[in-house]
Each structure stands twice: as C-alpha cells, then as structure tokens.
Specification:
Blueprint (H helix, E strand, L loop, with lengths): L16 E6 L3 H7 L6 E5 L9 H14 L6 E5 L8 H8 L6 E4 L5 H18 L7 E6 L2 H5 L1 H5 L5 E6 L1 H8 L11 H13 L3 E4 L8 H14 L3 E4 L5 H7 L4 H19 L5 E3 L2 E3 L1 H16 L5
Parallel strand pairs: 1-2, 1-8, 2-3, 3-4, 4-5, 5-6, 6-7, 7-8
Antiparallel strand pairs: 9-10
Helix pairs in contact: 2-3, 3-4, 11-12
Length: 302
C-alpha cells in the first residue's frame, strides 16, 4: 500500500454525474466542458479502438493542457493493468496533470496499487504533492466483487468505487434486464464496501439514453441504496442525474428542522424524541446531516 494519508480537511469531490467521453475526440471532450457534469472521464479503454489508442492519448493530453474545464473534475480512464497499454496511457497523460485516473475491471488490491505506484513516480518526477493524483476503481467482474474488501482498502489514493453492471453481466453469463435483479447482489456489495471504507459509490450506466424517465427512476433507486452519483454515457443524461442525486428543497427543509429540533432536545437533556409523529434517534439525525452536507456540496445551501 502506498504510504499516503487521505485528506480530511477538504470535502469529497462532488460526483453526482460522471460523464464518459471517447478520448480520441477533441470535439466531444470540448462539448463535455460546456455541460454541467461534475466529472468528465476521457476514455482510453472501451471507447477507443485498438488502432487509435496512441492518438487518443495525445488528444487527452492536449485537452488537459488547453481546455477550460471550469469546476469539472478531469479524469482519465486508462486501460486495465494487465492490458499492456497502461504504461503508455500514464506516460502520455499524467504529465498533463488530470485530477485523477479511473481503473477499469479492477479485480484485486494489486491492480489499484500498481497504478498508484506509477502515479507516485510521476508526482515525484514533477515535484507534485504525494497523492495529488486521485484514483477511482471500477468493479465490473465477478472476481472484483469477491475482492471488494481488499480493493476498497488498497490505497489511500483511492476515492471512489464505480459499479459496472454491463461487464459484470457478461462475466457471469447473466441476461441484463431493466429490473436488474441479475446484478443486484453486486450492486449492493459495491455501495456497502464503499460505505464501510469511507469511499464514494458511483452507480452503473443506463444504456437506453433516450429513455430519460427510466434513467430518473434508476437514479432514485441508486440514491436510495446509498450511491452518491451515476455514470453518464450521453450529454442528455447529465441534467437528470444531477437533479436526482441532489436533495430536493423539501428534503433540505425537513433536514434543517430535524437537526434544529435535535439540538434543542440535546440542550434540554433529552435523547430520542418525537418529530412529525415519528420517533427520532441518532441514525435519523445522521441521515438528516448527510442531506444537508450534500446540499451544501451541490451549492443548494450555504
């Protein structure tokens, strides 16, 4: 494990919408910078043909050096550690200093550590702070699901876990359905492991990008499960994902009143109390505080 200490001083990166764009298209990357996505992932893996990897690396490096991404997080999805492309991916793009890298098909702690060690070498060569290049791991195979505990603890550079349902279904021989019971165990396991080890959990893609109502419904389910955001594969998905992973005005108002009532009862020496006809204890208060924290992070509350 790389000897880094995660920062507790800064709030976690806002990652409601994580938009993937092919790394070999400057036009599409530039378009993404005009959208309200929280994170833009410039892809070197599935979104780029084998004979275009080198050109995509150059395009991503140029985009990082020349485009104004504003508040948007800049991530690069490299090829898997065992692909034979990883060294070239990092050598070409890391010097342009993205905010972090996305590791696809993460199956072991060693996959995370391999990438982290390469990034540590880049940081040292450029005099950058240790751990300034962050990592996000995509869990999308049966072995990755089985090794979630080790992956989540692999390295302090790791910020988040993403769940890849499509690749997982292919790996286990499942048939994908809208309901998603065939991947429900793994989807639950990823968000649980992320919560256990202080990481963010980013939900699977929604492939039918024309079905915006279906996307909104799947976002609501993911949020109920504990996911903080969702991967997007089309620009029109970004607005809906942002909306569904942000607290509503009614949720913010209720959380504020609940926290205020809790403080008042604490000052009077009382613990559990009734609020709007229901008993309230600390788990409920923590949930309300989480709503307010997300509202502040999304700029909905000072």
């Amino acid at each position: 494990m790389t000897n880094l200490q995660p920062s507790k001083a800064n709030p976690p990166q806002l990652r409601r919408s994580v938009l993937f764009m092919p790394g070999d298209s400057m036009r599409k990357i530039q378009k993404a910078t005009q959208l309200d996505a929280d994170s833009i992932v410039m892809d070197l893996e599935d979104g780029v043909a084998l004979n275009n990897k080198a050109a995509a690396r150059e395009t991503i490096a140029e985009a990082l050096r020349t485009l104004d991404f504003g508040r948007r997080e800049r991530l690069v999805r490299v090829n898997p550690p065992d692909s034979g492309f990883l060294d070239d991916d990092i050598a070409a793009t890391a010097p342009a200093r993205p905010d972090g890298f996305v590791i696809p098909k993460t199956e072991t702690a060693e996959d995370v550590q391999t990438v982290s060690q390469k990034l540590a070498a880049v940081e040292a060569a450029h005099g950058w702070p240790d751990g300034s290049l962050r990592l996000v791991a995509v869990v999308e195979t049966a072995l990755g699901v089985m090794n979630l505990r080790e992956i989540a603890q692999a390295d302090a550079r790791l910020d988040a876990l993403m769940f890849g349902a499509e690749d997982l279904a292919g790996d286990i021989g499942a048939v994908r359905t809208r309901v998603g019971w065939e991947v429900f165990f793994a989807r639950s396991a990823v968000v649980t492991a992320a919560a256990a080890y202080g990481l963010q959990a980013i939900d699977m893609i929604f492939v039918d990008f024309q079905n915006l109502d279906g996307l909104a419904e799947e976002c609501r389910t993911a949020r109920q499960m504990g996911y903080v955001g969702k991967m997007a594969i089309h620009p029109k998905q970004v607005e809906i994902i942002n909306r569904e992973f942000s607290p509503t005005p009614a949720e913010i108002d209720r959380a504020q009143r609940l926290v205020a009532a809790h403080r008042a009862h604490q000052q009077s020496g009382r613990g559990a109390f009734a609020f709007e006809g229901k008993m309230v204890d600390m788990p409920v208060i923590r949930a309300a505080e989480h709503v307010l924290a997300r509202a502040r992070q999304a700029g909905l509350l000072e």
